[in-house]
From TrEMBL:
The keyword Metal-binding applies. Its EC number is 3.1.3.2. It catalyses: a phosphate monoester + H2O = an alcohol + phosphate. Residues 158-356 form the Calcineurin-like phosphoesterase domain. Residues 56-147 form the Purple acid phosphatase N-terminal domain. Keywords: Glycoprotein, Hydrolase, Iron, Metal-binding, Signal, Zinc. Transmembrane segments: none annotated. Residues 1-18 form the signal peptide. GO terms for molecular function: acid phosphatase activity; metal ion binding. This is Purple acid phosphatase. Residues 382-441 form the Purple acid phosphatase C-terminal domain. InterPro entries: Calcineurin-like_PHP (IPR004843), Metallo-depent_PP-like (IPR029052), MPP_PAP (IPR041792), PAPs-like (IPR039331), PAPs_C (IPR025733), PAPs_N (IPR015914), Purple_acid_Pase-like_N (IPR008963).
Length: 472
């Protein structure tokens, strides 16, 4: 073979291999049995009203400050306002503390809410189990939680991930699988779309109440970090409801003021070794808007020496290869992605698409209106994007994918499930996703994350496996 022929052959081999590399990642061959997604009826045991006059219900907790030394305790009473007091005490002590909260009600079309209580308890000790009690007289209820360790770069911490949960039988399976996972998270990062009350006429807000009772078995015992989804909008101007996010913001308080935010829809917290930024896909994010300006000021505050892991939660995914909500996140990506690359976000968790997907580290920030550079490219400064809107709500499964699988898509599967993001130290985190159809210990997708600040080497493990691209 002559030299020129050898180079031609070499070029052909390289071209062929680049085609393979440019092909997408893995589309799971697992095909979930298609079943109708229906909400559990109001008289289901998971929606049981706790016994006793005016007993607190729908108890949920979330971080109440920037660093994890405060907790917002929320609950609902239905017979009368009752007490706003939370009594709390660290394990193995007799001295009890108490804090006073506030109470509110709201109206939504023909619905009047119960008495919604919010109380922030402060100056908690790190890494300590606390018991707390809400209610009055004979109908008090007691719960417990564990505060996070003090913030530090090598503090291990485990986050659970769920999204688009709803209140169907599948939702119940997802939550049960999460609870029974041996590597159960210490805090849930919830990526939006909670109750799906808006599925019903006049957005039947009794479904907000039933969801609160359903999830209490987890939300009362570990903090859930809330992200607003489109099903939190409850925008119904034709019925007089023209205030977006009304039920959501009345029911789920977040520590946005501590994060310097002016609205509860975008904010940040630090927890253990993670800095978590929560954004709203359904609030203005264009230049000069409050959310844009807040994020512009927020990113430079992230101290990777203190909190190496930079995590962003937002509802509508930027990199999605399903034929559901395709490119809905595009305008937000165009506005904000350059910061995600500049500040080396480790991972972005989204929901909205009712299936599972993990991306390669890609960015698409080169484009201007004349250069045609509009294809996502591998970028080791870019986040991994994970879509985990697979909680199992009433709208059913997203099982229609784009073909061929785009090169940005590393792994995708149309199933319901939850995930765990397990931070080991400043350099490594182990992530795995569990589908509901398996036993709890089975991991259907896993990935070692290498921190973008401390260990920014390519951790991609995707190889093109032709045998797995069989779902139609
Ligand atoms: Fe959604």
């Amino acid at each position: 073979m002559g030299v020129s022929n050898f180079f031609i052959l070499l070029c052909l081999i390289l071209c062929a291999s680049s085609v393979l590399v440019c092909n997408g990642g893995i589309t799971s061959s697992f095909v979930r049995k298609i079943e109708p997604s229906v909400d559990m009826p109001f008289d289901s045991d998971v929606f049981r009203v706790p016994p006793g006059y005016n007993a607190p219900q729908q108890v949920h907790i979330t971080q109440g400050d920037q660093v994890g030394r405060a907790m917002i305790i929320s609950w609902v009473t239905v017979d009368e306002p009752g007490s706003n007091t939370v009594v709390y005490w660290p394990e193995n002590t007799k001295h009890k503390h108490s804090a006073e909260g506030t109470v509110l009600t709201y109206k939504y079309t023909n619905y009047i809410s119960g008495y919604i209580h919010h109380c922030t308890i402060k100056k908690l000790k790190f890494d300590t189990k606390y018991s707390y009690e809400v209610g009055l007289g004979l109908t008090t209820r007691q719960f417990w939680f564990t505060t996070p360790p003090q913030i530090g770069p090598d503090v291990p911490y485990t986050f659970g991930l769920m999204g688009d949960l709803g209140q169907t039988y599948d939702s119940n399976r997802t939550l049960t699988h999460y609870e029974s996972n041996p590597s159960k998270g210490q805090t849930v990062l919830f990526v939006g779309d909670i109750s799906y009350a808006d599925h019903y006429p006049l957005h039947d807000n009794r479904r907000w109440d039933s969801w609160g009772r359903f999830a209490e078995r987890s939300t009362a015992y570990q903090p859930w970090i809330w992200t607003a989804g489109n099903h939190e909008l409850d925008f119904l101007p034709e019925s007089g409801e023209s205030t977006p996010f009304k039920p959501y913001t009345r029911r789920y308080h977040v520590p946005y003021k501590a994060a310097g935010s002016t609205a509860p829809l975008w904010y940040s917290i630090k927890r253990a070794s993670a800095h978590i930024i929560v954004l709203s896909s359904y609030s203005a994010y264009g230049m000069y808007t409050p959310q844009y300006s807040w994020l512009e000021a927020e990113f430079p505050k992230v101290n990777r020496t203190e909190t190496p892991w930079l995590i962003v939660l937002l509802h509508s995914p930027w990199y999605n290869s399903y034929n559901y909500h395709f490119m809905e996140g595009e305008s937000m990506r165009v506005m904000l992605e350059h910061w995600f690359v500049k500040y080396k976000v480790d991972v972005v968790f989204s929901g909205h698409v009712h299936a599972y997907e993990r991306s390669e580290r890609v960015s698409n920030v080169a484009y201007n209106i004349v250069n045609r550079a509009c294809t996502p490219v591998k970028d080791q400064s870019a986040p991994v994007y994970i879509t985990i809107g697979d909680g199992g709500n009433i709208e059913g499964l997203a099982n229609n994918m784009t073909w061929p699988q785009p090169s940005y898509s590393a792994h995708r599967e149309a199933s319901f499930g939850h995930a765990i993001f397990d931070i080991k130290n400043r350099t490594h985190a182990y992530y795995n996703w569990h589908r509901n159809d398996d036993g709890y210990a089975v991991s259907a997708d896993s990935h070692w994350f290498f921190n973008r600040y401390w260990n920014p080497v390519d951790e991609s493990t995707t190889t093109v496996d032709q045998s797995t691209t069989t779902v139609s």
